[in-house]
Amino acid sequence: MNANPPGAALLLDGRRDDDRTLAFAHDAIMDGLAAGGWAVDDWTLRDDRIAWCAGCFKCWTQTPGVCAHRDDGRTVAERWTHSDLTIFLTPVTFGGYSSELKKALDHVLPILQPFMQKRRGETRHPQRYARRRDLLVVGTVPAGQAEGPEAQTFRRLVERNTRNMQPPRWAVAVLESGAGDWEVRVAVDALLAKVGVKPARDAVDASRQEVVA
Mind listing the pLDDT tens digit for each residue in 191-208? Predict the structure, then answer.
């Protein structure tokens, strides 16, 4: 698979605290994207003011594409539509996303249209914009639970979310809390490769070869 040309990446960091494993994943992803020349919008969601979705559907019926809340939630959808790769970092919470990430994702609803269409035997909302972006998701669970029911539910959730998001490529991994930096970097490199981003150490080796040549 050829690597993506450098583009714009949106990283939605849903950590509620200093999750060491997710911190390793964050740094590994940033290193990989930086090595590939990507522009990264690194967003720590707990630092921003994002209201819970009111379920009013005004973003569909009154101000198409724009949330009724005048806060950072509006910016989520805007940055989303300008990205080539979207990344989620989150502790797995009851098989789902953290509260911080869930709030942000609810504000991406306006990128869909309120109409329904049949696709692959399922009823889905059509996209508002033609542009698509790849998706990379990293979740963490307690040690020994990477194949447990919550982790399995989480992977299934991400897979189902892609039915509406329609990413050209996507990858998800569930890491166990306590995983070391190197272990996390190996997992992240594999994820980056699945969405067409050259692993950081490959990019570094290539740069060294160019210098030697």
Answer: 999 999 976 655 445 444
Residue 67, φ and ψ in degrees, nearest 5: -70, 150
This prediction has a pTM of 0.87
Note the CATH architecture for domain 8-212: 3-Layer(aba) Sandwich (3.40)
Nearest to 180 by CA among 27, 24, 31: 24
* Domain boundaries, given as residue ranges, for the chain: 8-212
Q: How many CA atoms lie within 13 A of 130 on its CB side?
A: 0
- Contact (Cβ atoms closer than 8 angstroms) between residue 11 and residue 29: yes
Q: Are 195 and 170 in contact (CB under 8 A)?
A: yes
Q: Which of 102, 167, 171, 93 lies closest to 138 in space, CA to CA? A: 171
